[in-house]
Design brief:
globular; CapA family protein; Capsule_synth_CapA; binds zinc ion; transmembrane helix; Purple Acid Phosphatase, chain A, domain 2; 2 domains
């Protein structure tokens, strides 16, 4: 009898489990079409055909830092028994760089490598490990259009660009050949394509070889206009890197304002400025023709051996770029600019968030943080943190 009850009990449980499994199965079957509708967009979001024909919305984060200026004091400090290691200098900011969809830097000194001899100011040449470290901390693209591009001649540029190609780091603004200069650098993330153009005001008086004008891009309105128009044809967002302005001046010059406005007028969405070695504010630009764009006039020094407080403070700009296609028309919106000030500590040239700089030898870091925050935002009208283009 006992065994019979046991068998009956087991059979009851088996039946209950079976019935409930069947019920759950049908419930899931019914839900599946709803789940599929909700998630099919994500599954196929990278397909161009879907993007062009259906409603689409995606957003990407872009981060940018200013000058990477490798003085002799820095490469001496980075020297190891068998080479150079710059990664400790970036260890406290790596997490703030690698979490973006795209990260940009201005590589002010040419990375021509050890074989042609390293050198410091006024004619720089930096070790290859700088590029390895940039790649490792999440930098996707560097501008090499600046006043130090030709410091060590064409050879340093050829070495640097060949090394960038080898490790898969994009470069813009300086080129190996004419055909290299004709390829607009683009990066696509989450269905949004960005173009990166770069120009410098000059090359410290070192002449650009007459037969090789492509070797570095100068700020030239006709060239910029043509490039921006070409970039607009192949991308959603045009980012223009400009090496311009007056060294150590904390506010943009009239020239900077005019050049940035010109770029926006021609269709640039984002202007990343650098060269003054100190931070200059961010601003929304509305061009004469109604085009809108975002500019940061100077990103300051991100890493350098320069002394005095404003040259030791740089920062990480973050922008969110949203692309929306609705009923066949596309809008690009640049929004939510934020700026994380950073500081280069005197001990080991470690780059640290300014808010932590008191732990790295800077007294009153809270005071500096508040001042820099005001400085960077002073050209923003109140209640106008985002504009559509
Ligand atoms: Zn410069």
């Amino acid at each position: 009898m006992k065994n019979n009850y046991l068998l009956l009990g087991i059979s009851l449980i088996v039946h209950l489990v079976l019935i409930s499994s069947i019920l759950v199965y049908f419930m899931l079957l019914n839900k599946e079409p709803i789940a599929d509708t909700t998630f099919s967009f994500n599954k196929h979001s990278m397909k161009q055909s879907d993007i062009s024909t259906k409603n689409f919305r995606s957003s990407v984060t872009l981060k940018a830092v200013g000058d990477i200026l490798i003085h002799g004091t820095l490469y001496n400090s980075a020297q190891t028994t068998d080479g150079y290691d710059f990664s400790p200098m970036f260890s406290e900011v790596k997490s703030h760089l690698e979490d973006a969809d795209i990260t940009f830097a201005n590589q002010e000194t040419m990375i021509g490598g050890e074989t042609i001899g390293l050198s410091t100011y006024p004619r720089f040449n930096s070790p290859y490990n700088v590029a390895d470290t940039l790649k490792d901390v999440g930098i996707d693209i560097v501008s090499i259009a600046n006043n130090h591009t030709l410091d060590r001649g064409e050879q340093a540029l050829l070495n640097a660009t060949s090394y960038f190609d080898q490790i898969g780091l994009l470069y813009t603004g300086g080129y190996r050949t004419i055909s290299d200069s004709q390829v607009i650098r683009t990066i696509t993330r989450k269905g949004i394509t960005f173009s990166f153009l770069a120009y410098t005001y000059g090359t410290n008086g070192i002449p650009i070889p007459k037969n090789k004008p492509y070797i570095v891009n100068l700020i030239d309105y006709d060239k910029m206009t043509n490039d921006i128009k070409a970039a607009k044809k192949i991308s959603d967002v045009v980012v223009v890197s400009l090496h311009f302005g007056n060294e150590y001046q904390r506010m943009p010059s009239d020239d900077q304002k005019e050049i940035a406005a010109h770029a926006v007028n021609m269709g640039a969405n984002i202007i990343l400025g650098h060269h003054p070695h100190v931070l200059q504010p961010m601003e929304w630009i509305e061009a004469e023709n109604g085009n809108k764009g975002f500019v940061v006039y100077s990103l300051g020094n991100f890493l350098s051996g320069q002394k005095s407080i404003y040259r030791e403070i740089g920062g990480i700009l973050t922008l969110t770029i949203q692309k929306e296609i609705k009923n066949g028309s596309q809008t690009i919106e640049v929004k939510e600019p934020t700026f994380l000030p950073t500081y280069v500590s005197k001990n080991g040239y470690k780059i640290v968030p300014l808010k932590n700089a008191s732990n790295y030898g800077l007294p009153n870091s809270t005071k500096w943080l508040a001042e820099i925050d005001d400085h960077m935002h002073q050209l923003f009208p109140e209640n106008q943190m985002a504009q559509a283009n």
